[in-house]
From TrEMBL:
Gene Ontology molecular function, alphabetical: nucleic acid binding
Highest taxon in the source lineage: Bacteria
UniProt organism field: Leptospirillum ferriphilum
Domain spans labelled Tc1-like transposase DDE: 173-318
Any coiled-coil regions, as ranges: none
Protein name per its UniProtKB record: IS630 family transposase
Length: 359
């Protein structure tokens, strides 16, 4: 007796598009991708045995998912809906746990742990842990903040963000600051090199060989940095750096400087020099708002890549390392992409103020 003829699979445009998307997806379950491949191959006329050999599955498996698709369509590829294990704890217990953790502190400390929360709620440690993960509750962590007390905060934010998002014509915008007290630290023993299975090893103690201060000006337009190391960070050194900026920027361009409120930047002799050089325009960031100055992000980069893990036998060696990093960085520099508007920043500050005031 002859076998019944295999029923042909004919896909609509929508079904083929959906199946192609599943196959190309990097997040779909492997089993679902394999089933989509089976259906697409069957629709293209490939025999079951050939599909099974190519995809590394059995021939009955190919027949199973063909039958599922023919009877249920795309929904049949997702398998049966299983109920899973019944829930042990209801919503009220979970809600009580969250209210306890969010609205109070444990009697024995200042932060909830999984064990203390489990003890207070009567739930198991694993249940508390899963609940914390599900709702993104992290009582063991904190995030620091500081609100500016500058009476001209709003005006300064709008001014500086305006320079980032809409810089003036025929002008250069420079974020200027100094990274002071950079220590030339020399480890007391040689560094153990990194290897397969273990990280680089450094001694916890060190010998100090002096400090230097890095003055830096970040060009907002192209991301390049003008740097200068000085032994101190008084107004004399800052004035020398301003003269270096004046020398390096073409004379036909205005210069907009974004600086913080450090007393050196407002020294009488600095103000006097700026008054004699009208192409310089100084914009002071609000108090406690160094995050508005893009050069602070660059200081983080040079600290991580060139300073923190270094071992320097002298201040001169440290300065040479910094100068080499700045030169290499400028060869492939790219500007930081500033996307925050003044309104979005002020909205976030307003939300924090409301949280603090409880309104």
């Amino acid at each position: 007796m002859a076998r019944p003829k295999t029923q042909e699979i004919v896909l609509t445009d929508i079904e083929r598009t959906e199946l192609d998307g599943i196959v190309r997806s990097r997040t779909s379950p492997h089993g679902l991708v394999r089933r989509a491949q089976i259906i697409l191959a069957s629709a293209d006329g490939e025999a079951n045995l050939s599909i099974a050999r190519r995809l590394g599955v059995s021939s009955p498996t190919v027949g199973l998912w063909r039958s599922r698709f023919l009877s249920q369509g795309l929904a049949g590829l997702y398998g049966e809906q299983r109920s899973g294990r019944p829930r042990v704890h209801d919503e009220d217990k979970v809600a009580a746990l969250l209210r306890t953790v969010l609205d109070s502190r444990p009697a024995e400390g200042n932060a909830w742990t999984i064990r203390s929360a489990a003890k207070a709620s009567g739930l198991s440690k694993s249940t508390v842990q899963r609940t914390f993960q599900l709702f993104g509750v992290q009582p063991h962590r904190t995030k620091s903040f500081k609100l500016s007390t500058d009476p001209r905060f709003v005006e300064k934010v709008r001014e500086i963000v305006g320079l980032y998002l809409n810089p003036p014509d025929h002008a250069v915008v420079l974020c200027v600051d100094e990274k002071s007290q950079i220590q030339a630290l020399d480890r007391t023993q040689p560094v153990l090199p990194m290897g397969l299975g273990y990280v680089e090893g450094v001694t916890h103690d060190y010998i100090r060989h002096g400090t230097t201060t890095l003055f830096a000006a970040l060009d907002v337009a192209n991301g390049t940095v003008l740097g200068r190391c000085q032994p101190r960070h008084r107004h004399q050194e800052f004035l020398a750096f301003l003269k270096q900026i004046d020398h390096n920027v073409p004379t036909d361009l205005d210069i907009h400087l974004i600086v913080d409120n450090y007393s050196t930047h407002k020294h009488e002799k600095i103000r006097s020099w700026l008054a004699r050089h009208p192409r310089f325009h100084v914009h002071y960031t609000p108090t406690y708002s160094s995050w508005l100055n893009q050069v602070e992000r660059w200081f983080g980069i040079i600290t991580q890549r060139a300073i923190r893990r270094g071992s320097f036998k002298s201040t001169r060696e440290l300065v040479l390392k910094i100068d080499a990093f700045v030169s290499h960085y400028n060869q492939q520099a790219r500007p930081f992409v500033w996307t925050a508007t003044a309104e979005s920043i002020l909205d976030k500050v307003e939300k924090i103020c409301k949280l603090i005031s409880g309104s």
